[in-house]
Amino acid sequence: MQKLSAVVITLNEINYIKDCVKSISFADEIVIIDSFSTDGTWEYLQSLPHVQSSQHPFENYTSQKNYALQKASHNWVLFIDADEVIPPNLKNEILEILKSPQKDAYYIFRKFIMNGVPLKYCGFQTDKQLRLFNKENTFFEPERLVHERLITSGTTGILKEKLDHHFYKSKEDYTRRILFYGQLKGKELFLKNKKPGFFVQKIKPAFKFFQKYIIRFGILDGKNGYTISKINAKGVAERYKEVKRLRKQQS
Predict the structure, then answer these.
(1) What is the pLDDT of residues 139-171, one digit of tens each?
(2) CA end-to-end span of the chain, whole Å?
(3) Are residues 163 and 196 in the same domain?
(4) Paired strand residues for 203
(5) How far is Cα 180 from Cα 174, in angstroms, rounded to an integer?
(6) By C-alpha distance, which of 117, 100, 87, 89 is closest to 225?
(7) Helices (H), 112-195
(8) Three-class SS string for 179-242?
(9) What is the pTM of this model?
(10) Are residues 33 and 102 in the same domain?
């Protein structure tokens, strides 16, 4: 049986971190890197003797996750977000794989839950992430500041069971988070010297809404699907606003 490090990064996740930690308690080691939370998350983590918690300034998601990955003692890592939970069936599947891994990394599908209701569409139906992996040949792509992506030089597989992703706290919180993602994406484009034209800036946000709500069947999720599609379109618009702001700041 391979030993497992469960790794999480946090920032003001007191409403979710308790369920997250409980669901990964089967790991041989739990490592949590907090970005100086102010809502009680850090105090809660300090009260857990079985959790290795420390604080580190947040620069971007990729650098923070690479930092957290360095703190893991074991080669095999389960990396999840603070608002995610490993259900019992997924836990059992992970433990079975660790007895004799046939791949170097495994994708896990996510079930997106909004206000207690699973979202079945909006593009979430095909969402899967590399979450269980051997860190010896896996790392987070450094060029990305947001929507970080794991790169592995080894073989990959896909787990059958899904993890629960409680991604939506409130409309205000989700909007704030999506706009922040947009700003980081804008900074990423700026650093790559990308210069999106007027047409792209106007069409891309509208297409994002159309893509999520119509092409990816968000309309079948009802009001929730409309809300998610609209907020994600705002995130794309924010991306180009940030590029414009940074270019103006530079000149």
Answers:
(1) 888 777 667 788 899 999 999 999 999 988 888
(2) 57
(3) no
(4) none
(5) 10
(6) 117
(7) 171-191
(8) HHHHHHHHHHHHHCCCCCCHHHHHHHHHHHHHHHHHHCCHHHHHHHHHHHHHHHHHHHHHHHHH
(9) 0.87
(10) yes
